[in-house]
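Reply to dn_fold:

You asked what the input looked like. This is it:
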Amino acid sequence: MSAWLKVARANDHLRELQGRERAFFDLKAYMHVQEQDSEVGDRKSAVILPPPEDFGLIIGDIVHNLRSALDHIIWSLSHLPKSAALTPKEERAIGFPIVDSAPAYTATMQRHPGPLPPNLPSGVAAEVALLQPHHGWNNPTRFLLWVIQELDRIDKHRLVVVTTSAAVQGVHGVPLENPMRTFTGPIKSGTVVPLRPGQDGKPEMDMDLDAPLVIAFDIGPVRHPVEGFQVEYTLSRATLVIAHDILPRFARFGI
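and this is what came back:
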């Protein structure tokens, strides 16, 4: 089934992204700067560096292949050997719908032609309905299928923006306390982080940034529900869910 090939291609791009991330962090995702401070004199700070811009291109390839894999499922199930023929208009409308509310899903299904053609095997439409994000968390935009849907929508029109961020669950930022001041973030590309002084209270000019950094979704100037999600974790989980949960659900219908 071509959907498996799409997931395999997404996995190839994911491995490329993981390798690029490792290389980026191996070179240190920040640079040191010297600052003058009225309290402690010379002070060393770390400026968080942005990831390479083409990370967004790789991410776009991943999410597009994952999103396309879902559409390929519906196409394959509507073109089984004994499937009734569809009109060209019905074929153009084929897709795997992903919407964030029950009323929106009902409206999508009432379109003529709709994304689920009439010749699908019995039970397919029910499975698709059960996988809709509004059956998941209270905030359906955090459900992985919706995240992939949204990222693919963004990638169609503009680059998916990512940032170097502190590894803090759910949000950018990490508190870095020292005797002189407290830094509470957010830590992301461009942030200047004052480093901890030494045990005697004087600045340690050779000290490195003591905060785990990751690549996270930044999206752009308008806040978005996927902002702050860790890129590698999110895309890895989405790939696993589609490969080991969603595809097997539909394979039993004959593909």
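The beta strands are 30-37, 41-48, 162-166, 176-177, 182-183, 192-194, 213-217.
Hope that clears it up.
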